[in-house]
Amino acid sequence: MSPIWGSMAQYEMVHWSWAIAVYLFLAGLSSGSIMVALLVKWNRHERSNSSIWDAMIKSGAVVAPLSILLGLLLLIVDLGRPLSFYWLLIRYNITSVMSLGVLFLLLYTPIVIVFMLLVFERSVMKYTFLAPLVALIQAVKELHSYAKIIEYFLFVTALCISSYTGFLLSALYAIPLWNSPILPILFITSSISLGIAVNILTGLLFFQKYD
Amino acid sequence: MGKAYRLLYDENACIGCQACSVACRVEHGVPEDFFRLQVRMELKGVFPRLGMSYERMACVMCEDAPCVSVCPTFASFQDKDGLVHIDERVCITCKYCILACPYHARFINPLKNVVEKCDFCYESRVSKALLPVCVSICPTEALMFGDMNEHDSLVYETSHKEALIFPKAHLKTKPKVAFLPKRKGMKS
Fold first, then answer.
1. Alpha helices in chain A (DSSP H)
2. Which domain holds residue A91?
3. Calculated CA dihedral for residues B13, B18, B19, B24, nearest 10 degrees
4. Under the phi-then-psi rule, with left for phi > 0, alpha for psi from -120 to 50, and beta for the rest, what region is B42?
5. Chain B neighbors of A87, CB-CB under 8 A
6. In sequence order, what are the residues at sequence separation of 6 or more whose Cβ sits closer than 8 angstroms to the Cβ of residue B113?
7. What is the ipTM of this complex?
8. Residue A6 included in any domain
9. What angle in degrees, to the nearest 10, is found between the helix axes of A97-119 and A134-141?
């Protein structure tokens, strides 16, 4: 029975559904795996195609774009008015962490796809069913001389993605536990550890060549 | 000069009749089981020092409003008088403001699928120099509303006579709603 002042349901509702929880995981996964892949590429890449290091780079280059694209879809699904999401792209309130997140995602997502195409350039050329991508690859190939700059830029945006999710939650007053500056640090740490784990796992499962 | 609106809620005068809440529902057509305004009651203290404690749950119109600063599309905005409103056209119902509000004042109107909250009856009443509907209906005059820039207004006089409590003042949101705390009865 409701108390005399009425139903309390609206005060006990969970406003951000499972979709946001999964998105936060996917954003951490994407940025973590690409950061780890880049660190490996810069420090441990020895031009041999059979090492675990090479497998980790390939894994990061696949996992990062796929998970962020799925995550973006979930972000829109969770909106109360999904078809109005374009307002997010038109109006930017820089004091809102969500708006900053949209900006970071707009930078990050295309670059991470470019990175994937650069890493898998030869494989894409090999398979005929990927023929429509060849034109894209040719365009990306033009960027080869800028590869290092793109990688640095990608690393910075990935770091922004992994930390903004923490700042996003720490701006909430309604849930005092989350209203804490430790949260962004926790998010970065967990995304990097997730990146290491997933790169080793998918690297060993799919990209390890036994020869 | 802009207005410095203030709403005072006198916990000593409130009897918990919920007339304000009902009037609010009628004025704004709030859907069933959703509330812009609630007055919660609780019996507090130890016998024989018992007393009812009342709590008004509604938007407190912060000057530094967390809902306005987190809104990614400026759907939550402040007008020239510092009142917080919602532009339903650009609200995408991302629910960030609902979670950012320390006063739990916001909800999703299921009929329109946009975020809604108390707006001091700005459009329908205050902009036409009428009192908000909860203030005008209150049978015990527990609610007072007015402009702090007018020095002969009731809110100005009461604010300078009584000790006011601003809800969750430690968050430094600077609310425009203040409470006159209970003076007698229970010790919580």
1. 9-12, 18-44, 52-78, 86-90, 97-119, 121-126, 134-141, 147-170, 182-202
2. 18-207
3. 120
4. beta
5. 73, 75, 90, 92
6. A80, A81, B93
7. 0.84
8. no
9. 100
- Please state, as a whole number, how many other Cβ atoms lie within 10 Å of the Cβ of residue B5: 21
E strand spans, chain B: 5-10, 38-46, 49-57, 76-78, 84-86, 107-109, 114-116, 143-147, 177-180
Q: Residues B178, B164: contact at Cβ < 8 Å?
A: yes
Whether residue B167 lies within 8 A of chain A, CB to CB, comes out as no
Cβ separation of A173 and B102 shorter than 8 Å? yes
Distance CA B58, CA B106 (A): 8
DSSP-derived secondary structure letter, B165: B
Instruction: With respect to residue A12, please indicate whether it lies within any of the assigned structural domains.
Output: no
pLDDT in tens, chain B (188 residues): 688 999 999 999 999 999 999 999 999 999 999 999 999 998 888 888 888 889 999 999 999 999 999 999 999 999 999 999 999 999 999 999 999 999 999 999 999 999 999 999 999 999 999 999 999 999 999 999 999 999 999 999 999 998 899 999 999 999 999 999 888 765 55
Pair B118, B36: CB distance under 8 Å: yes
Instruction: Give me B25's structure tokens.
Output: 């529902």
Is A174–B39 a contact, with Cβ atoms under 8 angstroms apart?
no
CATH, residue A42: 1.20.1630.10
